[in-house]
Every structure is written in structure tokens, then in C-alpha cells.
Please model this.
Amino acid sequence: MRRRSPVPPSPLPQRAGIDPVRLRMPTEAGHRTVGEFLAAHYAGGAGAPAIAELLRTGQVFGADGRARHAEDPYQPGGFLWFHRELPPEPPVPFPLRVVHRDPHLLVVDKPHFLATTPRGTHVTQTALARLRDELGLPELSPAHRLDRLTAGLVMFSVRPADRGAYQRLFQQKQVRKEYEAVAPYDPALALPRTVRSRIEKTRGVIAAVEVPGEPNAESLVELVGRRGGLGRYRLTPYTGRTHQLRVHMNALGIPILGDPVYPEVTDPAPDDYRRPLQLLARVLEFTDPVTGLAHRFTSGLRLAAWTDYDAWRADGG
Model:
């Protein structure tokens, strides 16, 4: 089997924490020029006019750092780099707080409404892009992900060489995770209890659902405080299904405050920050696979509905 040649380093730096697009020109393609290849690659797509303009203005580059133009000869197996023009994104007006930083590991407190990694319409306004840009850490990568609507602790590996070790911590369930939530208080609900169910999520459908079958999701739910009709809950997930804690709390009849999906899907404006989901990734505890140190990190964030319920309601909660 023929081995592919190694990928050369990018001739372009990141832009706002986002890597340039990299394309490899296939060895078997029968194109005569770079322009022909890119026109065929983006044929019929929305990106075709944009890539033609990038070629025209000298913003497509080869491994040697020189701009490539439409009439330049096709190079089988060669690489091209360019930056896409990204649509403007409304800034998420909340800071990322560094909880821990060493040569291998970065732990931050992610605010509500900020995605962990670029996806869909959220690209530069993500924790990964902002941290790369603000801290000057271009090789930063996530060890795990936290929902855009959930606040709290997120871990990143600083060096590519350590990425796999930190990601395996989560894949092998070697991280103890603890969440905090604010939801209605139900005196008839016996707690603590462990909730087990089968959760499935269809691609393209926003809400996950519980279905009959062998359980694949398990969460411990504990009541740790009460104020009038509200409860403060400690949630310990033993598995990591999409929206698991939100689904389980809704199934108990105490959906988490500010949830735009459970029990009913609503459609808040993407820049409406008045009603944050009252769910916080509060604790991460593990043994560092690179340094061997025992870590326990605790979020410094607080849930607004618990600390100041009147103000939270006045803001739309």
C-alpha cells in the first residue's frame, strides 16, 4: 500500500483562533490548473464564487508560502491553504476565566451561550477560538465538550502530544463530573435517586428522547438546597449521552430553569442572553495522565436563579 506523504506545515497563521482550510489535490485527478480543480471541488456550492475571488486576489497559498492563482498548474498530491470569509457573529459578552494553566493542561470556566468548539453558525465566538487567540495558544484542543447553553468547567490540552491522553480520560470514564442545577422543588419527589433510561437523539432534531430498551444513560440526582418553590440540585452523570441531565430532570417532572428545549422547544433569539439555562458544570476530578497529579477543579461561576432569583426573573427568567 502506498503511503501518503506527510502533511507540510500550514503557510498561514490562524485567524481569530481559526485554522485555515487545507485541501489536498488528489494524485489521480485530471485537472490542468489550480483554478480547474477548485472550480470542480466547489461546483454547485455556495462557496464557488468565494473561492474564485480568493484565487483572483492571491489569497490561496501552497506549501511554499507563495500565492496560487487560477492559471497555475495543477500539482497532484499538493496542498492548498486559504481562510474562508466568515460571516459576522454577535459577540458573546461574557468572559472566559482561567481556572488552571500549566504546560500541558488548561481548564477554564465557560460562560453560558458560548459554544466549546466551532460548529454551524458559531465559529469565532467559541471557547476554543477565543482562547487560542486571547492566550496565544494556537495548538490548543478540547479534551471534551460542554453544551453551548451550559456554563462551567471545560478542559483543553495545550500540546498536540498530550491531546489523546486527556481525551481518553473522558472516553474511559476516568473523570468524576459534578453539575449543579436550579429547578422546581417537588416535595413528593423522593431524592436522592439514580435515574436510568435509554436516551436517543436523531441527527438534525434538537431534542433527545427517552425510548424503551436497555438503559444507556445514568444520573444521580440529589437535592442540596431549597428556597420556596425552587430546588438546588447536585447532578452526577455516570454516562455522557447528549442532553442527559436535562432529559433526566425533565423526566422527573422538574425541568431545569431556562431550558429552551425541555419540556417544550422554544426559539429564543441567538443574542438573547436574558434566560440562561440554570445548569453548571461545577466539579472535575481526575488524576492527570501526563503529570500524575491529582486534580479537583471547582467552578467559580454561580447560577443566577439561585443567587438572585428576583433579578433573574426580571431579566426574562
Helices lie at 34-41, 48-56, 127-135, 160-171, 244-251, 304-307, 309-314. Residues 21-82 form one domain. The first helix runs from residue 34 to 41. The chain has two domains: 21-82, 97-314.
